[in-house]
Design goal:
By secondary structure, this protein is α+β, with helices and mostly antiparallel strands. Helix content is about 35%, strand content about 30%. Helix 4 crosses helix 6 and helix 5 runs antiparallel to helix 6. It is globular, with a radius of gyration of 17 Å. The model has no long low-confidence stretch (mean pLDDT about 90).
Length: about 180
């Protein structure tokens, strides 16, 4: 297998390899770290690619956990043991389990262009963390799939302010105001 720095060649500006399984650099205005990890132990190890958009990539008031939906997820939701935010596009809603808040922001964040990219890249997970935004995909990715993950992450981060602004405007038009919680 190629070294991680070789897998991200031409994708990240100023790419450096701080550890044997990680490469850090910039994609546009964003600090990005690509990690090639093994999950599990022994014969149940599964390789994953993680793309982290670091730092101030996300807001503290946004919680986003999106995974490729399984039959088990559908059953959990049907039995009231989970909440799936429905975005209103059948193919996306059937493909992904979206556990997120605030829901009005998330529905706007997952716009048609982002949904299309996510469907093309599945299986896929997207999660907010204190460290930034994480996109994860089984197997060690390279080439167009890795570029797609990084581009999707950058697109999501850029869309977050717009999604909050749209949700605020919609709330104000319904009630005349929207309180700001700090």
């Amino acid at each position: 297998m190629k070294r991680p720095i070789e897998l991200v060649a031409g994708l990240l500006e100023g790419a450096k390899e701080p550890a044997s399984h990680r490469v850090r650099g910039r994609f546009g205005a964003r600090d990005v770290e690509v990690r090639f990890v093994d999950r599990g132990v022994g014969s149940t190890r599964d390789p994953y690619t993680e793309v982290w958009l670091l730092g101030a990539a996300v807001r503290a008031d946004l919680r986003l956990h999106v995974i490729s939906q399984t039959r088990a997820d559908v059953d959990e939701i049907a039995h009231g043991r989970g909440t799936d935010v429905i975005v209103g596009e059948r193919s996306f809603d059937e493909a992904f389990f979206v556990e997120a808040a605030p829901a009005d922001v998330v529905v706007r964040l997952l716009d048609p262009a982002i949904r299309e990219r996510m469907i093309a890249l599945r299986p896929l997970g997207v999660h907010t963390h204190d460290d930034g935004l994480l996109l994860e995909k089984p197997s060690w990715q390279n080439g167009p799939a890795l570029r797609g993950l990084v581009e999707l992450g950058a697109h999501l981060v850029e869309a977050i302010p717009r999604a909050f602004e749209e949700a605020d405007r919609a709330a104000q038009s319904r009630t005349g105001y929207r309180t700001t919680v700090t």
